[in-house]
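Blackboard transcription, Thursday session:
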Amino acid sequence: AQSVTQLGSHVSVSEGALVLLRCNYSSSVPPYLFWYVQYPNQGLQLLLKYTSAATLVKGINGFEAEFKKSETSFHLTKPSAHMSDAAEYFCAVSVSSSGYSTLTFGKGTMLLVSP
Amino acid sequence: DTGVSQDPRHKITKRGQNVTFRCDPISEHNRLYWYRQTLGQGPEFLTYFQNEAQLEKSRLLSDRFSAERPKGSFSTLEIQRTEQGDSAMYLCASSLGQISSGNTIYFGEGSWLTVV
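(Written on the board underneath:)
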């Protein structure tokens, strides 16, 4: 069964520092992978998605992620953190079953940005 | 293009009462999903509609949970005889096509349920 594991429930960075949020996947088929962001008391907003085209995927707000099959990873990065990036980030994998597909999410990583 | 709309955003109810949440998906989206999210966890899939057909409901948490999408447009999620463990955020999402074909799921703002 497809699943994702996010390493680190909390990541703290200083404003201007590199952001690296880790996600490893498990899938018996080529996966579709997604990163979503959730601000407090809000729903999830798509940051970027990998659908088997380019392995380096660029998303909104300066985020990008690289699909590495050999490492079964899809880590999220941003060169320079802003205070507004403080939020919870979820990695997700597409799961197909009985004629439909949905998303299975990791437990999330809270990004804390200090001045 | 309006996004996925959910109502109410917050609901406080007494244990044993019934609650209903409504979701209006993006207008042209024929696929609709319900998820539940508890504190410190990622969203957990509950049920799926394609048009008005509920194609997956085995993941609903108990027989107290039910969902409908009567005309293939809006959907409702009902929880009967609520328990304190039902306290969570209930997220609705929609998509134009299958995720496995590269389509995106768009989420609403969520409906917070607190059972006291």
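Lecturer's comment: Residues 25 and 72 of chain A are 6 Å apart (CA to CA).
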